[in-house]
Amino acid sequence: MSVLDSWEQWKDFLGDRLNQAKDQGMNQQAISDIAYQIGNYLANQVDPKNEQQRVLADLWSVASPEEQHAIANVMVKLVQNNGTH
């Protein structure tokens, strides 16, 4: 099973990566930029595996770059308390 198959596993995975980035001293702007790059990659290269990912992909596809950055930042906020760390 891929981490992308389950919304909860995906959020936990992102939460773990976010905690690792913060532990290594990455600042919020760098985290935001990486979140945007990941969102862009997923939107262009990966088929959504569940309803939540489909909604995000649909929103991403109609959003301006500024709105895409906002979506990425909201995802960071959503997962900041997730993960096993």
TrEMBL record:
Q: Which domain of life is it from?
A: Bacteria
Q: List, alphabetically, the Gene3D superfamilies matched.
A: Protein of unknown function DUF3243
Q: What is this protein called?
A: DUF3243 domain-containing protein
The protein's organism comes out as Bacillus smithii 7_3_47FAA
